[in-house]
Amino acid sequence: MNILVVGANGQIGTHLVEKLKNTETYKPVAFVRKEEQVTKFEDKGIEARLGNLENSVSDLKKSMKDIDAIVFTAGSGGSTGTDKTMLIDLDGAVKVMEAAEDMNIKRFIMVSAFQADVRENWSEEMKPYFAAKHYADKFLMNSDLNYTIIRPGMLENKPAIGKIALTRALTEASDPMTIPREDVAQLILEALENDRTFLQSFDVTTGDQEITEALKGL
Ligand SMILES: NC(=O)c1ccc[n+]([C@@H]2O[C@H](COP(=O)([O-])OP(=O)(O)OC[C@H]3O[C@@H](n4cnc5c(N)ncnc54)[C@H](OP(=O)(O)O)[C@@H]3O)[C@@H](O)[C@H]2O)c1
């Protein structure tokens, strides 16, 4: 199965591409925006396709030939303004969904953000970011795509813990509200073909359950 990782050069993306590469089932295809990033992945034996989330839907479709599933883990990051949040986290994500639908690619995993579905829980300074995530997620839920929306808590770069808490209830919160990026990557890997995750959206933080066990509870 060919998995297009949008945001492959990012922190979750890097973990995910490595994990996919180490399986027998999946072949990662890195979607990146710079020539040097293409070279970086190709040097590791990973196919990379050059594109940009600010480009048109028809341009994005060119990166989707022979792709079976898409993981969207891109983001404009904290150092850019609200304009880029709208163009990448919202419009970029929606354009990838539109392109996927046009290309008849059904499976789509979205990395959203903790509590993006509950407006009342958005902090004042992060409201534009959460709004972008919220409406991208809504577009996905209203699409024909077979989605899984993963809403992680605050991401950390510490080593994987391997234990998570999944919540589908809107008001539940687990403690701590953080999760290592590597655990999110592992969760994505395990969710790809797990039909319990199909058409589901959930928050995730570090918790008490092994990832595989936690997914059985969905
Ligand atoms: N930080 C948190 O605590 C937190 C919590 C919950 C959810 N999230 C979300 O989790 C996701 C992944 O997080 P992360 O920390 O792994 O992100 P990250 O390291 O910032 O990676 C984001 C990636 O998106 C790529 N990107 C940005 N603009 C692009 C464009 N125009 N075209 C193509 N690619 C573009 C970046 O490319 P370059 O490498 O070229 O810059 C980068 O590789 C993000 O959506 C983030 O919002 C974050």
Automatic annotation (TrEMBL):
Pfam families: NAD_binding_10. Signal peptide: none annotated. Residues 7-194 form the NAD(P)-binding domain. InterPro entries: NAD(P)-bd_dom (IPR016040), NAD(P)-bd_dom_sf (IPR036291). This is Oxidoreductase. It comes from Marinilactibacillus psychrotolerans.
